[in-house]
């Protein structure tokens, strides 16, 4: 079997030897255990955070540990009655093609009629629930309000804007290229999109948000967060979902937003969340999202990289903007 390990602490962008792929023998499953064959690996911005020296929201991955990730896999041998041979499962484990587990952290992969497995894995497991919970429960937008989302052409952001539209809001995305902005407006139905690499972001956003911003769904931090804070309306809400522009800045003090004063000037509510705290609501979230996907009201794009051996280089795409839509690795056939 092959498995990725955290080889060397790295501050800044991940380097070629930060993670290393090793070949290792696979033992037989013991009592109550099973062997899983990986099919899809989700690459998530937070994977970089797990390798950092920050005080984070869960156990970090330590140097010498296998790299951790979220997988869909098939049971190929089993001494665990909860997981028969042939069953599909999903859960958090290591970046590996085959492995032995007692099933801790795995659940049967839920089936969504009419939605292919890769799309169900890519959209309904992490990105969709994050977008739905963050926007509706934390952001609480009202019809007619303006919702701005950063990293809008990414896995979470693309869904946020479309849910905002479903709820009668004006949806404005911030993304890093003209092509991404065009995709958001022409294919996904965003009202406007602003390319943060082209011109002054505050002025671009101001033009795209003539009535100001009521809900800022923040995925990026840094200059994006500052631009959003600048244009917030009174009693606006800032949903702090992610701060990806800072994730390669481990071992460094990351400067705070310079427009934080608007939290008081505009009487904002600023709230962070971690979707893993809300797994109990997954059936509700997935039911809604799957319905919208079937109706064509939530469209998306999967950015699939083939081969476990390419997982580490693929992960860096998230921090350079090399992905459009949900980034994942196909490890084995469905
Ligand atoms: P995405 O698919 O959104 O990919 C990340 C995107 O971020 C890139 O495509 C890039 O797009 C943009 N980006 C990267 N670096 C920068 C930068 N320096 N400045 C501006 N934009 C940048 O990844 P995910 O959907 O996995 O994650 C999106 C966000 O959601 C992350 O912040 C992540 O941490 C957060 N998240 C939070 C969860 C929670 O429970 N709170 C759960 C899941 C995700 P571009 O070309 O536009 O620059």
How would you characterize the overall build of this protein?
With 334 residues, the chain is an alpha/beta fold. The chain has two domains: 2-109 and 301-330, Quinone Oxidoreductase, Chain A, domain 1; 119-278, Rossmann fold. It has helices at residues 46-50, 117-139, 155-166, 178-187, 201-208, 222-230, 262-265, 282-294, 311-315, 317-320; strands at 2-6, 19-23, 34-42, 68-78, 88-94, 98-101, 106-108, 146-149, 170-175, 192-195, 213-218, 232-240, 269-272, 302-306, 326-330. Strands 3, 4, 5, 6, 7, 14 and 15 form a seven-stranded mixed sheet that branches. Helix 2 packs across helix 3 and helix 2 crosses helix 8. It is globular, with a radius of gyration of 20 Å. NADPH dihydro-nicotinamide-adenine-dinucleotide phosphate (NDP) is lined by residues 44-46, 126-127, 130, 151, 153-157, 175-177, 180, 219-220, 224, 241-242, 244-245, 273-275, 318-319, 321, 323, 327.
Brief overview:
With 334 residues, this protein is of the alpha/beta class. It contains ten helices and 15 strands.
């Amino acid at each position: 079997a092959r498995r990725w390990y955290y080889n060397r602490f790295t501050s800044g962008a991940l380097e070629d030897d930060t993670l290393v792929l090793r070949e290792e023998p696979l033992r037989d499953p013991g009592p109550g255990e099973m062997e899983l064959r990986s099919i899809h690996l989700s690459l998530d911005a937070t994977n970089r955070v797990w390798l950092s020296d920050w005080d984070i929201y869960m156990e970090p991955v330590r140097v010498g540990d296998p790299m951790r990730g979220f997988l869909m896999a098939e049971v190929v041998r089993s001494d665990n009655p909860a997981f028969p041979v042939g069953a599909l499962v999903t859960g958090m484990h290591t970046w590996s093609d085959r492995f032995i587990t007692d099933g801790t952290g795995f659940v049967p992969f839920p089936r969504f009629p009419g939605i292919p497995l890769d799309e169900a894995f890519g959209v309904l497991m992490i990105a969709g629930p994050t977008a739905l919970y963050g926007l509706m429960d934390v952001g609480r937008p009202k019809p007619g309000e303006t919702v701005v989302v950063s990293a809008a052409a990414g896995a979470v952001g693309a869904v946020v804007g479309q849910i905002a539209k479903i709820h009668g809001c004006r949806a404005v995305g911030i993304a890093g290229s003209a092509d991404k902005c065009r995709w958001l407006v022409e294919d996904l139905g965003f009202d406007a999109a602003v390319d943060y690499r082209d011109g002054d972001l505050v002025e671009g956003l101001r033009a795209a948000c003539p009535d100001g911003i009521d809900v800022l769904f923040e995925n990026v931090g840094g200059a994006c967060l500052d631009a959003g804070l600048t244009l917030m309306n009174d009693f606006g809400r800032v949903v702090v979902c992610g701060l990806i522009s800072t994730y390669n800045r481990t071992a460094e003090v990351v400067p705070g937003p310079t427009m934080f004063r608007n939290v008081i000037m505009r009487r904002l509510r600023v709230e962070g969340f971690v979707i893993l705290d809300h797994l109990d609501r997954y059936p509700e979230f997935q039911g809604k999202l799957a319905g919208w996907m079937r109706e064509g009201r939530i469209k998306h794009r999967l950015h699939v990289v083939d081969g476990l051996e390419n997982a580490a280089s693929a992960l860096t795409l998230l921090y350079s903007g090399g992905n459009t839509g949900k980034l994942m690795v196909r490890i084995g056939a469905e």
